[in-house]
Amino acid sequence: MDKVYKQQAVEEKWYKFWEESGFFKADPDSDKKPYSLLMPPPNLTGELHLGQAMQHAILDAIARFKRMQGFDVLLLPGVDHAGIQFEGTLNKILSKEGLTKGKLGREKWLERAWKYKEEVYQSFHKTWTAFGLSADWSREVFTLEPKVRKAVFEEFKKFWEEELLYKGAYIIQWCPKCGTAIEDLEMEYQERKEKLFFVRYQIKNTNDFIAIATGRPETIYADTGIAVYLNHPKFAKLISKNAINPLNGNELPIFEDKRVDKKFGTGALKITPGHDPLDFEIGKDHHLPTLHAVDKTGRMTELTQDLVGLKIEEARQKSVEKLEQLGAIEKTEDYIHSVPVCERCKTTVEPLISEEWFVKMKPLAEKALKNMDKINFLPKNYKKILSDWLKEIHDWSISRSLWWGHRIPVWYCQKCNPNHLVGKDKDMVISIEQPDKNCQTCGQKHWVQDEQVLDTWFSSGLWPMATLGWSDNTQELKKYYPWDFETSAPEIKFLWIARMIMLGLWFKDEIPFKNMFFHGMLRDLQGRKFSKSLGNGISPYDLVEKWGVDATRMALYGYSIPGRDGRTSRQLMDERCKNFRNFGTKLKNIYRFIIELKPQAIKNKHATAVGNLKNTDDKKIMEELNKTIQSVTKNLEGFKLHLATDALYEFIWHKFADVYIEKSKARRAEAQPILEYVFRISLELLHPFMPFITEELWQKLPHKGKSIMLTKWPRA
Whole-model pTM? Predict the structure, then answer.
């Protein structure tokens, strides 16, 4: 434990020294060439996980490398307000106090939310520095702060003026537990084995039936039509006739539609526009009414008669019992299918019709597609992956039924526009604050603001610009935009990366970043994502506490291959960290040999400069050093950090320590200049990856300058 505390003391000492010396700060007025790195903002609601620790280690290595190359480096940190996740976490805490949003009301709930935000932020923020992140903390951004709020309003206003915004009832994905619309991209899919029911619908005024396979008999109450595939051999004769809904007696028109899947069920599809995206589109084209059997709380509506108020599973069972009593079930089959669930709370998602705000995405996607070549994607295939998605993009549902977030900046005259209709001819105003003007119709101020907030990604999509002060033309925006480097896990490539590209080009007419690095996902040995529910997570803080920051960082660089997932476990991480902890010990032993165990004859002398090399061993180690400088530099420039660390480990431990140092013992005084020079350069090459031990040892060597952070990057 003494070693652990000593290591932590060293880390705290040097981090404080760097920060207080201002080494992390960017200088927009500097004549140095800029290099900017944008940190993906972690969610406010939790401690950093192992993947984010790797992300931070990658960012910091590149930032330190570029500083040593002489760039004015900006590594900008920030935190995302995480709308749905934060609100869900807070509501759980409030429920333990017997409180709800309804009991508190919006204003008091928001007071509690901001108080909780401060509590989380303080404890959360302290952990950031644990990985030696050399970020410019003076520029840290929170996605609900005024600077971002102004940018988000400008984004909304411009979309409105350009007629890319609209509000309307449309089929969306609804999470009953979170109580809000979510994007398709915010869903996960679980394979489930369920029953497929083949239900008979009698043809009006005949004894004929049409059989339809459904996994959701509880939604039959909301059926408004029946579609069959083109030229169906059995059902084509029924086109233009009506079938009778077995549960409520309603007449359902039968028609053909090419979108019906021939291979599913009987080739006939019950159309429930209120509960399925495909049904919604088919229903719209065939002018069918839209009904709801399930409401936004995940319970049955009044449409379902005596099932009203039941949860879906219970209603399904009772619907089946009713259909069996009516003799309407022809047969049942087991089938396995993918069920969409909310990625946050794992609740089954319900497609519903809801009035939401949308952004028309096609013009933005088209502009992005024309500029994808300007971004260096790592790995390269992500350019195609993102481009293919952009070609098929649908309108973006940007409103969320939450209170935590950027409230939609639309005000309605409650007297003249009580239904909150939207349009440039309606009694409404786009404004960030309550309008200080009268309604044009009634001449009074009965303004009420839209109840919903904007999707978290609406503000996060502006991250590259909002962090630098857009929509103002700031000095920071001129100097550091577009960003030189951005990194992300692949799982948010559409939610975040694609949107940053679209919004950057739309509002700034520039790509948001030059290099887009997708690091792989860290998974357990079975290939599963780390999660609390599975109990397979690995805390980066536990690793740091046991092995130190430098060793943990080095262990993570081995997994930083662009686009390649890594499998690991706590045991494997401990083994890797232990190896690099031992590597740190090796560095200390090298230092002791070179400096503390200098021969008495040269004890009080600084090593002379390295001159003409006559000894074969000296020549060979200098050649190997030059090769290592070239390799590490090339791999850092190409963001191949795993190869750079491999090259340094191999050179320092094996070629320098095992071979050269052993041979130098026979000619110690003569070899001293080479020993000191090679070790110092080795520490400087290693600094981006192991910042603490390299600073500690470098300071004890003969050197120039205040910190290893400020030395010039070694050249071959």
Answer: 0.88
